Amino acid sequence: MAPSQWSEPKLGGYDWRADHAVIRDGELVLSVSERASGQVQTQAAASGATEALWEVDVTLPSMRDGLIAAPLWTFNAKTFDEIDFEVVGRNGLQLTLWTAVDGKHTAVWSDTVIRGDLSGRRFRLAIAYEAGRRVRFFVDGAVVADVTPEDTPLGFPSTVQKPYFDLWVANGLDPGWAGKWRPLSRGESLRMRVHGYRAGPLPPA
């Protein structure tokens, strides 16, 4: 795994910084402070797959409007295929599938499966991916969504996926999605703890 160090101009200066993704007491800690976010990505050669189960054990931070906790999501930068677990502000846990539609990165399916403020909650989250055929989302061992191409007529993820772990700020994005972000005080930070991660074969159908 490697911490990210890059910027996304549309987020108004909230860059991903390597010092906001650290191992502490054997756990991965991702943090957001004023003008900085934390992200870790797995190494492509070891983690990219077209069939796999990816699972994390995570404790969410204190959520606030505009904060996005993405304890597990997958992406292929070349094809725009993406599979997301995202805790969106204080709105709850949202699942989303993305792919390229007419060359544009497009959300083709989404559902909010747990609603409300999830501050401090601990979850075991998993994605079971079968490229081009099926995506299953698990929360604490239970299937909360089972999505196939029939559910997504505009397209479906069908290429190699690589896992990411992310805590970021939706500054500059539509506040109707995550709420309006209000800057943190100097020295203030928000932290998400990843207690464990594993990648393995698909679970039984």
What does this structure look like?
By secondary structure, the chain is mainly β. The strands form 2 sheets. Strands 1, 2, 5, 7, 8, 9, 10 and 14 form an 8-stranded mixed sheet that branches. The chain has a 7-stranded antiparallel sheet with strand order 3-4-15-6-11-12-13, with no helix packed on it. The chain is built from 2 helices and 15 strands.
Secondary structure layout plus pairing:
Blueprint (H helix, E strand, L loop, with lengths): L1 E2 L11 E2 L4 E4 L2 E7 L2 E6 L2 H4 L3 E9 L7 E9 L6 E7 L3 E10 L2 E12 L6 E9 L3 E6 L2 E6 L14 E8 L5 H4 L10 E12 L5
Parallel strand pairs: 2-5
Antiparallel strand pairs: 1-5, 3-4, 4-15, 5-14, 6-11, 6-15, 7-8, 7-14, 8-9, 9-10, 11-12, 12-13
What's the assembly state of these chains?
single chain
How many separate helices? 2
Distance between the termini: 29 Å
Low-confidence stretches: none
- The global form is globular
Strand content: over 45%
Gyration radius, to the nearest Å? Answer: 16 Å
